[in-house]
């Protein structure tokens, strides 16, 4: 057996990765399709989407997906898998713009408000890497 960089047999590492794909598939059941919610997942990366008329509503919907009964935090507890909430990122995808408060004549994208999960503030970002792809908040 060849050795992986972590000194585990490469075959064992591959098997663990394949099993993890099935372990977290329940996360894809969290969104409620009737509300337009969606989820995308691959291995240990998951993206929750909540369309709405405003970023404030979207913030609330994403937080609900995490805290409601059967939501992300329930999944975490029932699977004995603690989320690293400090690694979470929050981004609002919108083409709407607002006047720049710094006095510039240029407008800027509307900014999201920070949300908190289990007492941890989830940072708002304008660019985020997901599955190796850089996503910009203005690409929508």
Model description:
This protein is of the alpha+beta class and 140 residues long. 24% of the residues lie in helices and 21% in strands. It has helices spanning 10-23, 55-67, 72-78, and strands at residues 38-42, 45-49, 97-99, 107-109, 115-117, 120-122, 127-130, 133-136. A hairpin with a 2-residue loop joins strand 7 and strand 8.
Number of helices: 3
Approximately how much beta-strand content do the residues carry? 15-25%
Uncertain segments of ≥5 residues (pLDDT<50)? 1-5
Question: Which H/E pattern describes the elements?
Answer: HEEHHEEEEEE
Distance between termini? 47 Å
Gross morphology: globular
How many strand segments?
8
Please describe the structure with a list of short key phrases separated by commas or semicolons.
single chain, 140 residues, alpha+beta, two-stranded antiparallel sheet, 3 helices, 8 strands, 21% strand, globular, disordered N terminus
Ordered list of secondary-structure elements with their pairings:
Elements: H1 10-23, E1 38-42, E2 45-49, H2 55-67, H3 72-78, E3 97-99, E4 107-109, E5 115-117, E6 120-122, E7 127-130, E8 133-136
Antiparallel strand pairs: 1-2, 3-4, 5-6, 7-8
